[in-house]
TrEMBL record:
This is DUF4190 domain-containing protein. Keywords: Membrane, Transmembrane, Transmembrane helix. Residues 19-54 have a biased composition (Low complexity). It comes from the Bacteria. It comes from Glycomyces sambucus. Residues 1-55 are annotated as: Disordered.
Length: 168
């Protein structure tokens, strides 16, 4: 690989390659030669370093903060009704089909459906952010209630069928 020749500063008429682009200290110093005249009391200008990041001006009232403003993140999810619906739907799913506590489970399922509907309504109005949690609680409440009713009817049906089968 060849590089274009640069004029030799030694005054001998040859060419010398300078890979560093004539930066100070890149070429050997010759006695009595100074590439730049030095004035007393002056030195090389220093490159400014990286200082602190510039501070953003405060946002005007009624407007959102500027992009990248410190201290602001994505909006936090807020949907208490949806979260309550989800928790009650899980409790209802666990307890709605157990014969001794089925009534407690059914109440939890009904409350999960009510709170899930309110959570979905709030999310549609823009008052809540995580609509999916409310939908999940609503679906769990409905499924757990239906499962509890089906299992209870099956248990009662088997009890009554055993009672009638023994009379033959």
């Amino acid at each position: 690989m060849t590089y274009p020749p640069t004029p030799d500063q030694s005054g001998q008429g040859g060419f010398q390659y300078d890979p560093y682009g004539s930066q100070p200290g890149s070429q050997p110093q010759q006695p009595g030669y100074s590439p730049q005249p030095q004035q007393p009391g002056y030195s090389q200008p220093q490159q400014p370093g990286y200082g602190a990041a510039p501070q953003l001006p405060p946002a005007a009232p009624g407007y959102p903060p500027a992009y990248g403003a410190p201290g602001y993140g994505p909006p936090q999810p807020k949907n208490g009704m949806g979260t309550t619906s989800l928790v009650l739907g899980i409790i209802g799913l666990v307890t709605a089909w157990i014969p001794g506590v089925a009534c407690f489970g059914w109440i939890m399922c009904i409350l999960a459906v009510i709170f899930g509907g309110i959570g979905i309504s709030n999310a549609n109005k823009g008052l809540a952010t995580n609509k999916n949690v409310a939908v999940t609680g609503l679906v769990l409440g409905i499924a757990a209630f239906a499962l509890g009713i089906i299992i209870t009817l099956a248990v009662w049906g088997s009890i009554f069928s055993m009672g009638t089968a023994s009379t033959f």
